[in-house]
Amino acid sequence: MTANVALTDTFDQWRVKTNEVLAGTQAIGMANIIKTTDTTNSTSNTTGSIITAGGVGIAKSAHIGGDLKVWGDVTTVGDTTISGNLTFGDASTDQVTFSADINSSMVPNANLTFNLGNTTMQWANAWVGHAGITQKTDSGKPALSVTSTDTDVIAIDIDASQITADVIDIAADAVTTAKVIDITADGLTTGSGIYLDDNSASTGTRKTVEIIQNNAAALAATALQVQSDGGITGITLDKNFTDVAAATVTGLHVDFDRTVPGSGTATFTDIGINLDVNAAGLGTTTTTGLDVDVVGATSGTHTAVGIDVNVSGADTMYAAKFVGGDILVGVDGTGHDVKFFGDTASAYMEWDQSADELEIRGPVATPGKLLLSTAEATMVDGNKMGQIDFQAPLDGAGTDAILVGASIYAEADATFSSSVNATELVFATAASETAAEQMRLTSTGQLGINTAVPASLLHVDGTVQVGVDNTGYDVKFFGATSGDYMLWDEDQDQLVLSGTMKIKEQADADSDTAAFGQIWVNTATPNELYFTTDAGDDIQLTTGTRLAATPADGAQIFNESGAAVDFRIEGGTYDTLFFLDGSEDKIGIGIATPASVLDVRGTVQVGVDGTGHDVKFFGATASAYMLWDEDVDDLILGGVAGLVVPDGQFTLGSTAVTATAATLNKAATTGKSIAMAIVFG
Fold first, then answer.
1. Are residues 399 and 444 in the same domain?
2. Which residues pair with 456 in a beta bridge?
3. More exposed terminus of the chain, fewer Cβ within 10 Å: N or C?
4. Among 35-39, 313-317, 639-643, which is the least confidently predicted range?
5. What pTM, to 2 d.p., does this model score?
6. Is the dihedral of CA 174, 179, 182, 184 positive or negative?
7. Do residues 648 and 658 touch, judged by C-beta distance below 8 A?
8. Of 322, 323, 328, 297, which is closest to residue 309 (Cα–Cα)?
């Protein structure tokens, strides 16, 4: 049933009433308790088909076909589901406050279009389980920007609990000329641009920082580059180790491997560490390419090694190669030992700083060796192969004092070939000039002193002295025959010759030398032996072994000092044909023990038949003598000299004289024919 009912009610101010104007209490026919067909839209809280100045309470659901506009607050109790777009207030005046948690995803209506906050109104904190940030292709701004203005709080703090996963993983495979991570820290004082603290106690092998350039085709790529345009230190590696277990501890380890390529013969230059230092200054500058400071400990047994280089496996190996500049070990007055070992045990070369000397030591049973060589490819006579110079370059006198004072060098003696390497060893010294040659040992073993062309094994072109005055030395020259030699016996001050002496002939004696005599051989045929005195007088053995002297009255004196020495001349039969007994002052002919001043054992002949010579014998009394006068062929007794003949032994001609001595003596006194005193008996 449908009925239109007009309800009016007038109440005075004293009437008590209930605010329920119309209440439906029956369940039947209650579908539309209040219904109006007015379609006037509400534009405010005072317009529309139903208007009430009071509130509206609805115990059940309410459906609104048009817009819902509320002047005042809206409080929703229970879940709220809104379909369609939502617009919350005015950004300049209104706020949206969530007291409850958000239980769904917040997905924008358009991709990469809307912002969460802006440059002036920013969210304080955001807690998310995962943040996925996608940069718009035309955004013109970074995918993530962090602006940190709190000066004493960390800008980005990551507290990671990952064990087997990476904490930060950046995949920047599209980057070509840009930087994957670009950090600018222009305000640093004592802080660090990047700080990494690995305080893990794990003893396992790990790398605190690992950089891998992992593409073999990237030939010009650099795995790590550090550029320092300010500050005095480019890179500092401070390695500390305190563990007590045995270990090999390394401060910096460079492992450079390049495997043998599968093909090709390209030339490679492999450098483990390439140190390029360029420095300049206007003041005093000391530039050091590599400064190694190794300090050992005195506790235990400690060997400190500054640089340990081990090179192996190549065709040509250099443990160290220096191009340009000098090599300095120690400083002036404080040096260090430098030792080079050889291929054989115990062989080495060492600069011994404490002894200030260089030692080259050979192995057992082998001498130390020093090789001086030349790069000359075509050696000719006069080329030097090696040279040792001696010099005092710092002498304050300068000029000659700083020239090379002595040299030893090896010089080619001929053009070298496959069968010739003739070499001479030259010794040079100086007096007031650059060292000049003084001695040469030829390729054939000949030694020349003051001559470059020695003609014998020893060739001295100048004076030779052995010892000094009053302190001499023996000098002995052996011959080709056993037992033959020439000896200067310094102890006896005499020259001893065992063997034959040959003297080359010459026309005359050399120029006179004061206080010296000369023994020489004259060019006569046959030769004659001369002794020329300092006065120019000659004593000679002439042809036929005759002794002569010039001037003619020159005296020959033997044993002038009167020493008790003998003089002996051997003959074909007698070994004492002539013997002078110096100790007894006697002469023996044919006897080595003369019984008198002259003892002749054999026939004595004076002159030859038809040509004789006077022979005169003096007695002890003045004017007493016996004379064989060759001129008158008489034997004459002069003075008191007499002739004593035993009785019966005096013969005149072929007739024996039988007269007694008295008779003959009487006849002599009476002037008979016997003109001598003859004593018989």
1. yes
2. none
3. N
4. 35-39
5. 0.46
6. negative
7. yes
8. 322
- What are 30's two structure tokens? 């209650």
Which of 330, 350, 370 terminates a domain? The answer is 370
The size of the chain, in residues, is 681
Determine, yes or no, domain membership for 408. yes
Which residues are paired to 294 by β-bridges?
Answer: none
**Mapping DSSP to helix (H, G, I), strand (E, B) and coil, where does residue 401 land?**
helix
Residues 364 and 380 in one domain: no
Bond preceding residue 393 cis, omega within 30 of 0: no
**CB-CB neighbours of 661 under 10 Å:** 17
Closest CA to 509 of 498, 497, 524, 522: 522
Residue 517 lies in a domain: yes
Structural domain that includes position 406:
373-464
98 vs 88: CA distance, rounded Å: 12
Residue with tokens 């007994």: 581
Strands (E), 392-527: 404-412, 423-429, 436-441, 447-449, 458-460, 475-478, 485-489, 494-498, 505-506, 518-522
**DSSP state, residue 399:** G
- Half-sphere exposure of residue 608: CA atoms within 13 angstroms, side-chain side: 0
Integer Cα distance of 605 and 613 in angstroms: 10
Tokens of 232: 């005095």
Listing DSSP states for 487-512 in one string gives EEETTTTEEEEES-----EESSPPSP
CA-based nearest residue to 410, from 439, 386, 435 = 386
User: For the segment 239-284, what is each residue's pLDDT rounded down to a tens digit?
Assistant: 888 888 898 888 888 888 888 888 989 888 888 888 888 888 899 9
Q: 383 and 354, same structural domain?
A: no
Average pLDDT over residues 361-386: 95
Number of H helices, E strands in the chain: 1, 28
Whether residues 361 and 407 fall in one domain: no
418 lies in a domain? yes
Residue 323, domain member (yes or no): yes
Sheet holding 357-361, edge to edge: 338-341, 348-352, 357-361
Count: domains in the chain: 4
Choose the final residue of a domain: 546, 580, 604: 604
- DSSP, collapsed to helix, strand or coil, labels residue 402 as helix
Same domain assignment for residues 412 and 345:
no
Q: Are residues 460 and 379 in the same domain?
A: yes
Instruction: Tell me whether residue 664 is exposed, middle or buried, using C-beta atoms within 10 angstroms of its C-beta: 0 to 12, 13 to 18, 19 or more.
Output: buried
**Residues 414 and 422 sit within 8 Å (Cβ to Cβ):** yes
Structure confidence by residue, pLDDT tens digits, 161-184? 999 999 999 999 999 999 999 988
Same domain (yes/no): 407, 446: yes
